[in-house]
Design brief:
Two copies of one chain form a homodimer. With 335 residues, the first copy, chain A, is an alpha/beta fold. Helix content of chain A is 43%, strand content 17%. Chain A has helices at 5-12, 16-24, 31-43, 50-57, 77-93, 113-120, 135-142, 166-179, 195-210, 227-240, 252-264, 298-313, and strands at 62-68, 97-103, 124-128, 147-150, 159-164, 185-189, 220-222, 246-249, 274-279, 292-295, 321-323, 326-328. Chain A binds a DNA duplex (30 and 30 nucleotides) through helix 2 and helix 4.
DNA sequence: ATCCCCCTCGAAAGCGTTTTCGAAATCAGA
DNA sequence: TCTGATTTCGAAAACGCTTTCGAGGGGGAT
């Protein structure tokens, strides 16, 4: 059906060996023969089969992008998309094809990690959206396929990660609020199955400590990164301490939910309660009030993950990449 | 390196043929031999190479997901992600692997369509986010690889599509506004390189006509689906006709931009100007005011696209799928 | 004229599967 | 016990490519 290297060889009156050499830029071939072959191949609109090539070279030139919980409308929703873009862009730029595989722990549709890698001969894998208790994780850590984790600070023989300095990010948020004069600052954290939650909690604590503010149990609530949970949490926090004047949310989406509920409760933002979000979603700039947030370089996560991967595939054992957070001021924390 | 079918054969003391047969459920094999082979394969954690299999079977069991303008933060931003999820879910459910390829017309990084298909032996392709003037389109239409288009109403020999009834959707929006008593209704449309824009324009016109309202040139503005353009357009429209009391936006994002700008101009929504969006983004429910919108079954787009694909791969020539829009009321059009 | 080396190219093996074709073994019926 | 059908299995080719190894030819040096 499809046109093969043999056809080109026949057409050019040479052997397949010669065609292969011409196409792959080997030196031991007469320049004019090469030109002729190239021309014929182009005219015939010939493109070598990546499959056949993979088989013989034992390299697929493909990397996997595995996302847990993609089907969950959930947590990283807005975050994930940009990371996907980054991974895609860099993979393409480097000549790798991307195989997307979104798994879903709940529905048991998980294909064992190893199997996927073996089946498609993946040269490396970018893994994201994984909970701390996800079964994938164990498999990955002792598999031999290079793996770059996004927002999961674990390393192993063939495994490293890229993430934000979440501790620093959370601290930035708290510092910003302290500068604005707040002393009673709540935290609406994400669920504990997310690695980032622990770090943001830590950063929150450090931020308070540096300001000489003792941490209080009732200032911390746990949501699930979703809008609704942000609303519920802020209500709970206010019930526990009506004097609360500020809250730091571990996701912009929860921040939006919180602001929404605050309005319903008759509280003004930022006059009565100031709010800081996390993620740096574009839409936060266009809300009323616009939301102060810790911005993550999401696209770059993807790019760097692929970069880590190719370095690992080259035999290196690169250090994890920890990107710096930035605070973007909005109206939700006043001027 | 990796364990192959030969290893299993040797282990079991049979030929590779027999192993292949056992694994693939052929009947001509003694039940107990099959069991033994299966056991051995499982113990060895063996998984057949999809690559080798593809080569000999000339079927890759892989479909491509090609997205133009993914790198554009742009237009379908929020829409695309859900469609991707749908494609992924259904592809997995049906046992196909997904190869993601986001191209970018601007940066010329486009890999010719045909080449991609040939290289990876794709059995079918889902194509989305393509402009009317995109070079891909021509290639696709006369290629022989089955192709399912999303939101691009074109058919060809091996090509069909899934989309929303955009005419009906726009009409729903206008009807809703008319019911609320509006007579001067503007349209903030998307750019004309999007297929959907033409249809939404048509639906807008029909909606007005049915209400006996003559369409006026200056009621129509063209944005690019982005927030900023929504803001600019509403300002222009109001400049052209200060009496405007309602506007229908061809994307939720533009609607948000428009509402934002309206507030800045001292107009109340919906009291002074009512706004309807398009897409049915979740976040529209959580804004103040929440946005009335035409909801698209985005996830289902992906699912149906894959369904179309497999039917085409089976030799059928299925009819296009046109899904029905639904209006979801928010506060932006009053009660 | 001889020898050696370099340049250019082809034959063939091999990658891990599936599948065709036929052979061996088993079984039924007589 | 023999025949023929049926069941169970193996040898080998094929898929499209890369790569090793070596052959042939031309040119320069001796």
């Amino acid at each position: 059906m499809s046109i093969t290297i043999k056809d080109i060889a026949k057409q050019a009156g040479v052997s397949v060996t010669t065609v292969s050499r011409a196409l792959n830029g080997y030196p031991d071939i007469k320049p004019e023969t090469r030109q002729r072959i190239l021309r014929i191949a182009a005219e015939a609109n010939y493109h070598p089969s990546a499959i056949a090539r993979s088989l013989v070279m034992k390299k697929s030139r493909a990397i996997g992008l595995i996302i847990s919980e993609l089907t969950d409308l959930g947590s990283g929703y807005h975050m994930l998309f940009d990371v996907i873009r980054g991974v895609n862009d860099q993979a393409m730029a480097l000549g790798y094809d991307l195989i997307l595989s979104a798994t879903d722990p709940e529905q048991q549709r998980e294909i064992p990690y190893i199997e996927l890698c073996q089946r498609r001969q993946l040269e490396g894998v970018v893994l994201m959206g994984v909970r701390t208790d996800d079964p994938y994780l164990k498999e990955v850590l002792d598999a031999s396929v290079p793996c770059a984790l996004v927002d999961i600070p674990l390393t192993a023989d063939s495994c490293t990660y890229v993430t934000l300095d979440n501790v620093q990010g959370a601290k930035l948020a708290v510092q910003h609020l302290v500068e604005r004069g707040h002393r009673r600052i709540g935290l609406i954290n994400g669920h504990n199955q997310a690695f980032v939650s622990r770090e943001r909690w830590k950063g929150y604590g450090e931020g308070l400590k540096e300001a000489g503010i003792p941490l209080r149990e009732e200032w911390v609530a746990y949501g699930d990164f979703e809008q609704e949970s942000g609303a519920e949490c802020i209500e709970n926090l206010l019930a526990a301490d009506p004097e609360l004047t500020a809250v730091f949310c571990a996701s912009d989406i929860m921040a939006i939910g919180a602001i929404q509920r605050l309005k319903q409760l008759g509280k003004r933002v930022p006059e009565d309660v100031a709010v800081v979000g996390f993620d740096g979603l574009e839409l936060t700039q266009f809300l009323t009030p616009s939301v102060t947030t810790i911005v993550q370089p999401r696209h770059r996560f993807g790019v760097e993950a692929v970069n880590l991967l190719v370095r690992m595939m080259a035999g290196e054992t690169p250090e994890p990449i920890i990107l710096n957070p930035e605070l973007r001021e909005g109206q939700s924390t006043g001027k």
